[in-house]
Every structure is written in C-alpha cells, then in structure tokens.
Design a protein that fits this description.
single chain; 41% strand; 2 helices
C-alpha cells in the first residue's frame, strides 16, 4: 500500500520499462530477442541449491542531482533517464565536479564512470527507456519535446554505436511512459491521444525510422507498462486502465502484436490493479517468464509486490505478497531483484510488519516458486492464501528516503547484466554513505565483499556463574547479504583459540539467542568477547566483558544433574532476558515490574535473585510449546504479602492474563500454598503452614504417575492423587498469571516477593532429588 505523501499521484512521477523482446511488427523484420543475461553471484548461501545474490557492497557510481526513473543495459553500458540537470563523480558532494546532463546519460556498469561521448539534452524528463534486441538502438520516452534543441515530441531513438540521435518522424501529443522494442521498431504506451494527425488511444507502434504503424489498440486510461512475449505473438500491457479495446481489462491485459486485438492472458483475472489509486507499474520478461509489479493506495486494486506469469497463457506462476508498492524488476538466471518500499513479507515466510514501520527498498527473490502464500495478517490487504510463491533471499542494501520528487521513495528502477545489478532513483544514501540517484552491486568475484555483520547490543554477553563454570549468553546479530554467521566466543583475549565456535542462521527479523557453558574455569576474574563472522571473513566483535568465577557452591550443579528443561539462576543485572544454564538454551523473558540482583542466600557467593512487584512483574519461557503431562517446577521465594499471588504455572498468553491456565502453585492471602491442576474440575493440594514470613523457602511441585506432590523446604506438605491435567500450548510463567475461578483465589494474580533459582523439568522429581 502506498504510504508516502502524494501516494495517489504516483502517476505523475513514475516510470515503465518493457524489456526488449522478439515481436513481429507490421513492416518489421526482427525475429530475435534480447536474452536476459544469467547472473552467477556467489555470497555463500547456507543451503545447496539456494541461488546466491550479488553482494550488498555498493560500488562507486556516477551520481545525478535529481531522480532516475528508468534504466536499460546494453552490454556493459547503462543508459539512464529521468529528471536531472547534471552528473558528478562517485563520492563528490552535490555542487562539486558537476557535468551537464539534461535528463539522459550513460555510464559503464563495470566502473560506474560517466560515458562522456554520450551527451544529449532532453528539454523535459525522460520516463521510459528500452533497447532493441540487437543492442543497436536505445529508445527514450517521456515529457520532453526536443532533443539537443531539435523537435522530438515525447519519443526519440539513439544509436549505441555512434551515440547519435536517429530519425524519428512521428510526433506524439502526450507523455510516453512505456516502451518495448524489436530490431525493426518499437511499441509505446502512455497517456497520449494522437500521433501526428492519427488518433491513438495511449498505445502506438513505430518502425525503425519512427514512422507510425497501423497497430492501434485502445486503453481507456494511463498505460504504464509494455512487454513483448518471446513468441512474438503478444504485447502484455499494464497500467491504470479498466478496458482494452472496450473489453474489461483491469490494469492488465494482452493484445496481438500484429492486429492489436485483445487476446486471453489469465493473470488479469487474479491480479487487478487499476483506477486513480492503483495500477501495474512495470512489466519485464525473460525467455520463460513475464514479471509484473503493482501498487495500490486504498483504491481499486488488490495487489502489491511482484508476480511471475507464463508469457503465452498468462497463467500465474508465482507471486510475492510483500506489502508495499513495487516499481521494477530485473531477473537473472535464478534471482529476481525488485525495488519499491516493501514493509511486510510475513505471508511468504519472511519478515513481519515492524512498529514503527520500516521500508525495504530493494529485495531479491528466487526465480523458481518454492512454496505457497500464507494468510494475510494486515488489515486492508487481499488474502492470497495458497497461491504459489518464491522465497525471499538474504540481500538487503540500505537505501534512504529521497525528497526530490516529493513522494518519499528510494529506488525506482533496477537493471543489470551477468556481473552487475544497478539501481536508479531519488535516494541520496546507500548503506549510509552519500550517493545520489545511481548505484551498483556486483557478484562476489567482482565485489569488495567488505560489508560484515551488524553491530547490535545483543553481542554484549551476559553471564550465569557456577563453581569453576560460566554460562555465557548473547543474542545473534545479522548480515545484509549472508544468513549464516559464525560466532566465536573468546575468553581472556585468546582469539586464536576460541572456547566455542558455532554457525547460526539469522536475519534482521530473527536473531536467536545463544548460550555456551564454559567449564573448568579457574576461579577469579575473566573476560569474554563475542565475534560475529560472515562467510567472507568480515568480523564484528562485541565488547569485552568481565565476570568473576567462584570455586564454591553446590545447589546449581545438583539441580542441573536432574536434567531440567530450563534452569534460570536469575542473577542478571537487567532484563529483559533470563539466562538458561541447563544446556538447553531456553532463555526466559522478564516483563513488568522486576527488581534485579536482590540479595539471596541460595547460591553463595553470588547470592542474588529478583523481586516481583505484585502487580505485573513476571518471567516466562521465551517461546510457546505444549505443556508436558509430567513435570516439576522448583524455585526459592521470600515474601510478607497478605494478597497472595501465583508463583509459578502454565498459561496460554505470553503477556497479560491467560485465558487457559493450569499446573500452578499460588499463595493464598493467608500465606498458605496451593498446588492445582484442572482435569474434570479443579484438583488442588494446600499446605497447612503459612510461608509469608519473610524467610527464604524452597518450593517444588511435581505431577506424574504417582499424582501431585507439593514440597516446601525439602519435605512434602500436600498431595493429590490426580495424574492428569489440561492440554495447553503456551508458556511457563513465574510471578503471576490468571487465577480466576480457582479455589480460595487470593486478592492478587501476581506475587509480591523475591524469587531465586527457578528450574522446570519434564518429569516428576523424586523426594530424594528434591531433598
């Protein structure tokens, strides 16, 4: 959905390019087509068979002082058109080293350098550009009426061999927005109504000399995109129209290349973007597929993103349902590159909507379909559930928001060849370095490959200590063109011999926590540092952090020997994460009112736990899972509350109050403890003694084949023979959750008091283990 100022006026400032392809125009001789070059990028994808992208390293490229609407690549030369008055060298600040270039230029895609011999002046912006299949001619369309001062109303042709302007004898009376060429001529689309004295309703065809041909299909509104199918039988047309030749075609359709008659093209029965606030923005093709992109802004449209279709039948091959307008595509042999402003790719198994909203202005997808679209999760978008989809690849250059057009966009066009990808638009920074309007990226063999993992605060390690042991915990970072990163854990600066090395996959939307227990550590103060390293050797270190290791203490090793699924020492200096030293790497998540590093006698000499505030403070497992049938929960607590509250239990909500809750131990207002499960009703066991005496107490609750047992300070204090419980998927929560309807419900759902050394097991501990 377009979400930028003036989004509904996109038709005043965007572009269309049809890829040059084979077609038999009336009076034309061409039968060949431009073959899309096969890129061979290699940035070490972690799975065999996953196509690799170009590197995310931005290469030095000539700049412009405005916007580039569209580009086309002929060999190693990129021809770019838009709205600008000058070019300047890579790295030059605006206003320095300027070379006059009026809305049209050429540069070398290998070096990024401006080609001085191609120097022409358009008196208005260029909005469409394409090349003949043999590469001999480049055609430009737009708002201009002269080239180098000579009349060329809205369309012009240039020789790539000499750079000279070619004859073009037919004046078009309005803006040309779409072009697609053969060796013998060119098709054009836009918002014009006549060519010379001949009526033409937004579509026309010309021979190589620029003479108007008889091809005259009609569109009832703006044509934005044209592409010719490989068989030379059809022109696929996209835009904001609702009819072609008077027949319904909602933004997308196809016509015969010779007669202009409408022909079936089935994707237009599925994807329908048309009207004032929606449209098909670009159409591209290779030897096997036609690619299209669309936009909508609360109007008569149903699709944002990119689709691929069979060029002859128009049958949908796949769609990427990433929310956010998409403006252009370039397809290599295995990867499809797109530009736009995507902000939610959750339905295709990738990143969700962020808050605040974040834009991703260039992306890459597999050319092949790999799965199906999931359900839409954002209001205002069509649910394309079950449609075929590609996969999003790990390539995310950082592109800023430009201001030149007033539409708050970044890249508008993408082109390339076998070695390079080039973007054009109105951005002023790439990867946070100044660069205006144009940029390039290369395959691994031609790239510097210097962009490494991002530095994030999660690379600062946190610790849980035991006798001669340290559990180190950290959060993964991410890399903008590598999914698999290697993490090296270094103790005491010994980089040559890390204590742990592991490779973990992560993305900007998924950075899993990691942990490692370093055993046999000499008591005393030690330092630890995390290094995140990409497959090309770029290393990003976290800060060096100190921890003191003791040689005493027995409680934690005894608990760990019982094999808990989680063991949380609760000795963090701050939240939101609680380290797990069980070896299972299941961190906890704090929320609400929690006070950290509260003195505790349970595990000397560390001696700290946490205090919950009794109103919303709690700790939970980080991810949802099915509750086990047999289990044990154990912790230490201290309180003087007279409002009760739940100490530990299982619920289906990560935050707030659960609607399903079971396997819980809660304190009554009196200070007694109740252990309860729900199975054919409430089944509880309550201690006769009260424990809100301000002293530390050990609590263990077990349920298994022998029923339910509640232990306090190592001794059983209450039992119930019930062996079954409620099947729930959710979270273990410590410190509070819903107690509605439970027997002797206390005043508070949340526990006000201190807690230390929490462990949860998927078995019922024996009395000997509890002692």
């Amino acid at each position: 959905m377009t979400s930028y100022p003036g989004g509904a006026t996109l038709n005043g400032h965007t572009h269309i390019r049809g890829v040059a392809a084979a077609v038999l125009l009336p009076l034309c001789l061409a039968t060949g087509m431009v073959a899309m070059p096969a890129a061979s990028a290699d940035t070490a994808p972690p799975d065999a068979g996953t196509p690799a992208t170009v590197s995310v390293d931005a290469l030095p490229t000539t700049q412009v002082n405005g916007v580039v609407w569209q580009q086309v690549t002929v060999g190693n030369v990129v021809y770019a058109t838009g709205k600008f008055t000058s070019a300047r060298p890579p790295g030059a600040a605006a206003g320095t080293g300027e070379t006059p270039r009026a809305n049209l230029l050429a540069y070398d895609i290998r070096t990024g350098q401006l080609i001085s011999s191609f120097n022409h002046s358009l008196n208005g912006q260029g909005m469409a550009i394409t090349a003949s299949p043999d590469g001999s001619t480049v055609y430009v369309g737009g708002d201009f009426t002269t080239v180098d001062g000579a009349s060329r109303p809205h369309i012009a042709a240039f020789s790539t061999a000499t750079g000279a302007v070619k004859p073009f004898t037919s004046p078009v009376n309005g803006q040309v927005r779409a072009l697609s060429a053969t060796n013998g001529g060119v098709y054009a689309g836009g918002n014009f109504t006549a060519v010379g004295t001949a009526a033409r309703s937004r579509l026309a065809a010309f021979d190589a000399a620029g003479r108007l041909l008889g091809w005259a299909p009609r569109a009832d509104s703006l044509v934005r995109a044209l592409v010719l199918t490989p068989s030379a039988s059809k022109v696929v047309v996209g835009g904001q129209f609702s009819t072609l030749n008077g027949a319904a075609a909602l933004g997308l359709g196809a016509v015969n290349t010779s007669t202009g008659a409408v022909v079936p093209w089935s994707t237009n029965t599925t994807i329908q973007d048309y009207g004032d606030k929606a449209g098909i923005v670009s159409l591209r093709a290779d030897a096997g597929l036609v690619y299209g992109t669309g936009f909508k802004f609360n109007g008569t449209g149903n699709f944002e993103g990119t689709f691929a279709a069979d060029p002859e039948t128009g049958n949908l091959v796949w769609m990427e349902d990433c929310h956010g307008d998409t403006y252009d595509t370039f397809a290599s042999s295995q990867v499809v590159y797109t530009v736009g402003h995507a902000h939610n790719c959750h339905s295709i198994g990738a990143y969700p909507q962020a808050n605040p909203q974040a834009w991703h202005r260039a992306q890459a997808f597999t050319r092949a379909k790999t799965g199906t679209v999931g359900h839409n999760d954002q209001f205002g978008y069509t649910d394309w559930y079950g449609k075929p989809r590609p996969s999003l690849l790990d390539w995310f250059p950082t592109i800023n928001t430009g201001t030149f057009t007033g539409q708050s966009q970044g890249a508008w066009s993408v082109t390339g060849n076998a070695q390079y990808i080039a973007l054009g638009g109105e951005f002023t920074q790439i990867n946070r370095a100044n660069q205006q309007g144009l940029t390039r990226f290369a395959v691994r063999a031609a790239a510097p490959n210097k962009v490494g993992p991002m530095y994030l605060p999660g690379l600062t390690p946190s610790f849980a200590t035991g006798p001669s042991a340290v559990t180190v915990r950290w959060q993964s970072t991410y890399d903008n063109d590598n999914e698999a990163l290697t993490y090296r854990l270094v103790r005491d600066g010994n980089v040559a011999v890390p204590v742990s090395t592991r490779t973990v996959r992560s993305t900007f939307w998924n950075q899993p926590y990691q942990g490692y227990t370093d055993t046999g550590v000499t008591p005393g103060t030690h330092t630890y540092r995390i290094y995140a390293v990409d497959p090309l050797g770029n290393s990003t270190p976290g800060p060096t952090t100190s921890v003191t290791v003791s040689g005493t203490g027995t409680y934690r090793p005894a608990v760990r020997a019982d094999g808990p699924m989680v063991q949380w020492p609760l000795d963090e200096a701050a939240g939101p994460s609680a380290a797990d030293i069980s070896g299972g790497n299941r961190p906890g998540t704090y929320s609400g009112g929690v006070t950290y590093r509260v003195a505790s006698p349970v595990y000397a000499p560390d001696g700290v736990g946490v205090t919950f505030n009794g109103s919303n403070g709690n700790l939970r497992t980080a991810s949802a899972a099915a509750a086990p049938a047999a289990y044990s929960t154990e912790l230490w607590f201290r309180t003087t509350t007279v409002a009760g509250g739940r100490l530990v239990g299982f619920g289906n909500a990560a935050t707030g109050l659960s609607s399903l809750y079971d396997r819980q131990v809660y304190m009554l207002n009196s200070g007694q403890l109740t252990f309860g499960v729900y199975s054919s009703g409430f089944n509880t066991a309550t201690s006769p003694a009260r424990y809100n005496d301000g002293r530390w107490h050990q609590l263990v609750a077990t349920q298994g084949s022998a029923g339910m047992v509640l232990y306090v300070d190592g001794s059983p204090v209450a039992t119930n023979a019930r062996t079954t419980n409620q099947a729930i998927t959710g979270y273990w929560r410590v410190g509070g959750d819903n107690l509605a309807a439970w027997p002797s419900r206390p005043t508070s759902n949340y526990f006000a008091g201190s807690v230390d050394e929490v462990a949860i097991s998927t078995k019922a501990l024996s009395a000997a283990q509890v002692r």
